[in-house]
């Protein structure tokens, strides 16, 4: 099965990334990507874009040469109350809100603190996808987190970059995420976590884990644009007519 939706990419707006939106649009057809989200880092990261970057994404076209563009963010979970670093007035302008832990905003503490923070973010209603929940720098009670995600209909990301460039040691945790999501009824998304356009749609390790665990295809949001868009609509996001052609 081909997976045509990437929900985690960064542009030069996050200055430790190296590609523009145009670069991604050039690579997408070569990789068979029909829909992808631009998810630059939330503004409390040191080199993240200004909050206006996120509200001004409304100027972006919806579809370019048959490829859909989702307006998103990878927000930072800031504290144990599950707060994230973008105001609600800006969040409502976005198609997709992903959030996760990053060391410079929420330094690693202990499993109970991480678990409380992640579950609070899940239950806040503001977050559609939790990014790289298998990060070994932030051990959590995975069963509690994934149970909360299933109950709140929040997806969990399997992050391909975790196996290659960052968050080394994620393998066992990520497999456990897939197994628990399978058994508890949670959704999974695939993220390339691309910081350069050449890796858009690279899901080799994501696919390997879901095959290994026998995860049901109907809860894999990367399988088609419609799968992800239906999930986002279920979560209260607006229907986007321009995507009907995807």
Q: Brief overview, please?
A:
The protein has about 250 residues and is α/β, with parallel strands linked by helices.
Describe this structure in words.
This protein has 246 residues and is an alpha/beta fold. The chain has a single domain (5-245), classed as Alpha-Beta Barrel (TIM Barrel). The protein contains eight helices and eight strands, in the order βαβαββαβαβαβαβαα. Strands 1, 2, 3, 4, 5, 6, 7 and 8 form an eight-stranded mixed beta sheet that branches. Strand 6 (129-130), helix 5 (142-152) and strand 7 (155-159) form a beta-alpha-beta unit. Helix 4 runs parallel beside helix 5 and helix 5 (142-152) crosses helix 6. It is globular.
């Amino acid at each position: 099965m081909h997976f045509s939706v990437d929900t985690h990419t960064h542009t030069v707006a996050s200055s430790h990334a190296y590609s523009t939106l145009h670069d991604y649009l050039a690579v997408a057809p070569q990789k068979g990507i029909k829909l992808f989200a631009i998810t630059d880092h939330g503004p409390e990261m040191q080199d993240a874009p200004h909050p206006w970057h996120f509200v001004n994404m409304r100027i972006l076209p919806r579809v370019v040469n048959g490829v859909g563009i989702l307006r998103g963010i990878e927000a930072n979970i800031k504290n144990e109350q599950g707060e994230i670093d973008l105001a609600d007035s800006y969040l409502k302008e976005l198609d997709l809100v992903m959030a996760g832990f990053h060391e410079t905003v929420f330094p690693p503490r202990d499993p109970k603190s991480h678990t409380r923070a992640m579950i609070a973010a899940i239950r806040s209603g503001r977050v559609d996808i939790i990014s790289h929940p298998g990060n070994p720098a932030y051990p959590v009670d995975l069963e509690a987190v994934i149970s909360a995600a299933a109950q709140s209909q929040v997806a969990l990301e399997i992050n391909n970059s975790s196996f290659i460039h960052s968050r080394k040691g994620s393998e066992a945790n990520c497999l456990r995420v897939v197994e628990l999501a399978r058994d508890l009824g949670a959704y999974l998304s695939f993220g390339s976590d691309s910081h350069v356009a050449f890796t858009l749609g690279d899901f080799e390790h994501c696919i390997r884990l879901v095959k290994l665990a026998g995860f049901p295809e109907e809860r894999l949001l990367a399988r088609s644009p419609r799968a992800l868009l239906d999930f986002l609509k279920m979560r209260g996001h607006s229907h986007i007519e321009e995507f009907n052609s995807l």
